[in-house]
Write a structure and sequence with these properties.
Elements lengths: L1 E6 L7 E7 L5 E2 L9 E9 L7 E8 L7 E8 L17 E6 L2 E7 L22 E8 L5 E6 L6 E6 L10 E11 L5 E2 L11 E3 L4 E5 L8 E3 L1 E5 L6 E8 L19 E6 L2 E6 L23 E8 L5 E6 L5 E6 L9 E11 L5 E2 L11 E10 L8 E9 L5 E9 L17 E6 L2 E6 L23 E8 L5 E5 L1
Antiparallel strand pairs: 1-5, 1-7, 2-3, 2-6, 4-5, 6-9, 7-8, 9-10, 11-17, 11-19, 12-13, 12-15, 12-18, 14-17, 15-16, 18-21, 19-20, 21-22, 23-27, 23-29, 24-25, 24-26, 24-28, 26-27, 28-31, 29-30, 31-32
Length: 481
């Protein structure tokens, strides 16, 4: 039995414990137990002058830990009761781990007399270190290794490799490459950008390839390629694996090398989350007989990695088959018309609860949201005018119905000008390169966005919805609803 227990000596539930098991989506905590762990108690202490001390402990119990990896987060619970005393932050609790009845050590948070839980104004002190982590890894015989860290670790690596010579399924040449995009950032992590990006990704500069020639045609060679994201917690990332078309594939003596695809393995903190490859295209070569690139060769996949602040990450693969690109943008105001107008786009998929938009820029079904749609045109030329666009990309809309809804965004900026309400944004939708639209909400010729009192005008119609329903062959019906 593996029994980690926390006992705290601090004021009013100042510590809480959260346990997480690798491979499980459930946390074991004050909010509930799991099928692999039970939680009990509420760690706290009352220690007031001239009164008896009262304390309680908090514990989690894992009845069978062999062969598992566990992370324990011990976090301070901030309370307004801490404002009454100056030194209670100097009483951190102890986190003690027992494994099969043996005490494996106690851990506590570093404290300083100079850094209290709250500042002089009663606000939470951002310099107070409120959490630390204990990692426990046990082998099948329950021989466990413990380590402590003070920060979240979240390294995400994509590694592209080809098989060894003895394992190569075909003769010939094939090359694939990896790039990484952090949603919300402009800079791309790729071979042409080998320096570390501003969001902590570094490409190793390599080119993943295999050259498995028949005897007399050349030497066997293979190379890998990787990209490593550090500090990935709280981020949304899209790993892109794409084939590199080149002249070495045009050799008619090697008719099957287009099927010898690279494998991209995604690892998070050293733990493999899955291995992915673009389709083998069994009946589609990379090139035609005239050496032109075959546009029907499926050469691309995306793997999305979405991590929370504790580096609990979801990994989803998407193959672009029925691609939708939607753009929401503004035309310029007509002559002698000035002001501000902003609309925004939300996309839903029937059968799912996730929205794709400002507040959720990456969904499990592959939708990526970017940008803001607005227009700002001052009457005074000494101010800088601006215009922003908003976009949504869905890699595969086949066999699904997606609803695109444009909403007006109400703001007091609109109250300064009289005509800006008549310039709605236009929604353009591209499905596998075919254009539809534009679509926009009504111009509301006789209705302002706000009343004369500055309140939102309930009669202003600032919404339009477009439904896109696609078959498995990407034959799509577009309907304004």
């Amino acid at each position: 039995m593996f029994t980690p227990t926390i006992v705290c000596f601090h004021i009013k539930r100042h510590l809480s414990i959260v346990a997480r098991k690798e491979g499980s989506e459930d946390n074991c905590s004050y909010d509930g137990s799991t099928n692999w762990c039970t939680h009990d108690g509420d760690a706290l202490i009352y220690k007031f002058k001239d009164e008896p001390t009262y304390s309680e402990s908090e514990a989690v119990v894992i009845p069978e830990a062999a062969g598992g990896k566990y992370m324990f987060k011990i976090e301070h619970y901030f309370s307004s009761l801490e404002l009454y005393y100056d030194n209670d932050h100097m009483m951190p609790g102890n986190f003690t781990v027992w494994i099969n009845g043996q005490d494996k050590g106690s851990y506590t948070r570093d404290v300083s007399q100079l850094i209290s839980t709250h500042d002089a104004d009663g606000n939470i002190n951002p310099n107070y270190k409120s959490a630390f982590y204990i990692d426990v890894e046990c082998d099948e015989s329950c021989d466990c290794t413990l380590s402590r860290r003070d920060n979240v670790e979240c390294e995400i690596k994509g590694l592209v490799k080809f098989p060894k010579q003895k394992e190569a399924p075909y003769y010939g040449h094939h090359s694939d490459s990896i790039t990484v995009e952090k949603i919300g950032e402009e800079e791309i992590c790729e071979k042409s950008n080998v320096g570390r990006t501003g969001w902590n990704c570094k490409h190793d500069g390599g080119t993943a390839q295999i050259s498995n020639w028949k005897e007399g045609d050349g030497e066997f060679s293979r190379d890998s390629e990787s990209a490593l994201v550090r500090k990935g917690e709280g981020g949304n990332f899209r790993f892109r694996l794409q084939h590199n078309f080149n002249d070495l594939e045009k050799n008619d003596a090697y008719p099957e090398d287009h099927k010898m695809v690279g494998n991209m393995t995604i690892s998070i903190n050293g733990n493999e989350m899955g291995t992915f490859s673009h389709p083998k295209n069994n009946k589609k070569d990379t090139h035609f007989q005239n050496d032109n690139v075959n546009p029907n060769y499926k050469d691309l996949i995306y793997v999305d990695v979405e991590c929370d602040t504790e580096c609990n990450c979801d990994v989803n693969k998407h193959q672009p088959l029925c691609e939708i690109n939607a753009v929401l943008s503004f035309n310029g105001f007509e002559d002698n018309t000035f002001g501000y107008h902003s609309d925004y786009l939300l996309v839903t998929k029937n059968g799912t609860s996730e929205e794709c938009g400002w507040s959720n820029i990456m969904t499990s079904w592959g939708c990526i949201h970017k940008g803001d749609a607005y227009i700002l045109d001052y009457v005074d030329d000494k101010y800088y005018d601006n215009n922003g666009t908003e976009s949504v990309y869905i890699p595969d809309a086949a066999n699904g119905t997606h609803n695109f809804t444009v909403h007006h965004y109400y703001t007091y900026y609109e109250t300064y000008y009289d005509e800006d309400h008549r310039n709605p944004a236009e929604l353009s939708i591209m499905i596998n390169g075919e254009a539809y639209g534009p679509f926009s909400h009504p111009t509301n010729e006789n209705e302002e966005t706000h009343t004369v009192d500055g309140l939102v005008n309930e009669n202003y119609d600032g919404t339009v919805s477009v439904s896109v329903e696609c078959t498995d062959k990407c034959d799509c019906d577009i309907t304004v609803i």
